[in-house]
Design a protein that fits this description.
This protein has 13 helices and 18 strands. The protein is α+β, with helices and mostly antiparallel strands. It has a six-stranded mixed sheet with strand order 7-2-8-1-10-9, with helices on both faces. It has a four-stranded antiparallel sheet with strand order 12-11-13-18, covered by helices on one side. A four-stranded antiparallel sheet has the order 14-17-15-16, with helices on one face. The radius of gyration is 25 Å and the shape is globular.
């Protein structure tokens, strides 16, 4: 039983007396629960602690595993330079995990270290663990911008590595919850904040780890959480294990959520292969959604499948509706995977003979030529959610007062620079946000004079 348990803990610097200087007493329940969780981790008797921190090195498409034999750090950035840490790394574990990832084509390893010093998302959990346990080695792993399910998969590989090496491993998922719980907090309030904290504490308190993967990315962003990916990795490390779970505490005194739970492995449980359960549920939903796609989306999907799968262009069907073959208009094709944008390319006005041709060309571009993303791979095709927006002719407007973020898209331009944002996008709730994003896309400063504004409507096909 190499994976022996795990703890979910926050990392507020103010929790440490050397930093808080009395303020830590306002979150005494968190401090008490932290001591309990740390004592629990020590009781597990781990040879190695694997810790996931959102403040370690983070890449958009790669998981960084800290290399080397040891590392050190201090709390100087929080006015406590006297509080120092030194850890010995389990280099064999890190190397074995990296080789497993390389062999399976998983994007994780020890490349790309920019800063070797320990981060506070690592040091604060170890501050408490070190009260009870000294003879252990550490594996420190950063998060990534990859989907939540990929963090779960890396957790499973951590479990595989522990099995191979025969290590007793305890996992620490370091992460705060929402940072937007109170108007008087340092980050303000968002309605998604309390919703996130209630939901995550329920899920983690029940160890219903497949539900972690159901959290919408935009919802998490609006809640301003920082630990969700750490918790997904923790869940993967405990995959197919029978667990004794305890929810110890939750506080939001300073407008940031701090949650603590513990997990003891009590044996194997094949019914808790939760990634497969989540994937089956997701695939059923995608299949049902694909069955309802209209002719616009079906064409985009067929074109992408033919181009990615067979490297050939899909011929336009003879039975397309007249509005696709007899009309000219600009069109955007957007791809999403696991709730995240995977590609979006379009034309503001018509450049081809009909809407169908516009969709076909832009579908290939969205899948293979969006500079923000690598080309779509064949194994991703069944996971793609596709939408098609057909644009009306843009019209000039005098000010942002003539915009409606739900109804109108916006085009901003100055000279040759031009940026566009579609209407009714998830996470874009105000006209100011909409225009600001379009300006950034165009490379235009908000303070420049002579910016031209246009609006347009779309018919969205899903």
């Amino acid at each position: 039983m190499p994976i022996v348990g795990a703890i979910m803990v926050p990392h507020p610097p103010i929790l440490l007396p050397e930093v808080g200087r009395g303020e830590e007493k306002k979150i005494a329940a968190t401090a008490a629960a932290y001591e309990q969780a740390a004592a629990f981790a020590a009781e597990l008797g781990p040879d190695t602690i694997v810790l996931a921190s959102p403040h370690s090195i983070m890449y958009s498409d790669y998981f960084h595993i800290s290399p080397g034999k040891a590392a050190k750090g201090d709390m100087g950035q929080f006015r406590a330079p006297q509080l120092t840490f030194r850890v010995e790394y389990d280099a064999e574990f890190a190397d074995t995990l990296s080789r497993l990832c390389e062999r399976t084509g998983f994007p994780a390893g020890t490349l790309g270290e920019r800063k070797a010093e320990l981060d506070h998302g690592t040091m604060i959990p170890l501050y408490y663990v070190n009260h009870y346990l000294q003879n252990y080695k550490l594996v420190r792993i950063g998060l990534s911008g990859l989907p939540l399910a990929e963090h779960y998969r890396l957790g499973r590989m951590i479990q595989q590595t522990a099995d191979k090496l025969g290590r007793r491993v305890a996992f620490i998922g370091s992460g705060d919850l929402s940072h937007k719980l109170r108007e008087d907090g340092p980050y303000g309030f968002a309605k998604e904040g309390p919703d996130y904290d209630g939901r995550i504490m329920d899920v983690m308190g029940r160890a219903a780890f497949d539900e972690l993967l159901d959290f919408d990315e935009s919802f998490c962003e609006k809640a301003a959480e920082c630990g969700h990916r750490s918790f997904c990795m923790l869940a993967g490390a405990l995959d197919a294990k029978r667990l004794e779970t305890k929810r110890l505490s939750h506080e939001d005194t300073f407008g940031v959520g701090y949650g603590i739970c513990t997990y003891r492995v009590c044996g194997d449980d094949p019914d808790r292969r939760l990634l497969e359960k989540w994937e089956a549920r997701r695939n059923r939903a995608l299949t049902e959604k694909r069955a309802k796609e209209d002719a616009f989306v079906r064409l985009a999907r067929a074109v992408i499948n033919a181009w990615i799968g067979e490297r050939k262009r899909f011929p336009l069907p003879d039975d397309l509706p007249p509005e696709m073959t007899e009309r000219r208009a600009g069109a955007f094709v957007s791809l999403h995977k696991d709730g995240r944008l995977r590609g979006c390319i379009g034309t503001i006005g018509p450049v081809r003979s009909c809407v169908a041709e516009e969709i076909a060309e832009n579908a290939i571009s969205a899948a293979t030529r969006d500079p923000r993303f690598s080309p779509v791979r064949q194994e991703e095709l069944d996971s793609l959610e596709i939408s098609v927006d057909v644009l009306s002719t843009p019209e000039d407007i005098r000010s942002k007062a003539e915009l409606d973020v739900k109804r109108y898209g916006v085009i901003v331009s100055k000279g040759a620079r031009r940026g566009l944002l579609l209407p009714n996008l998830e996470g874009v709730d105000t006209v100011d946000e909409q225009v600001s994003i379009a300006l950034r896309k165009a490379g235009i400063s908000e303070h420049e004079k002579g910016i031209k504004l246009q609006r347009f409507e779309v018919v969205r096909h899903v």
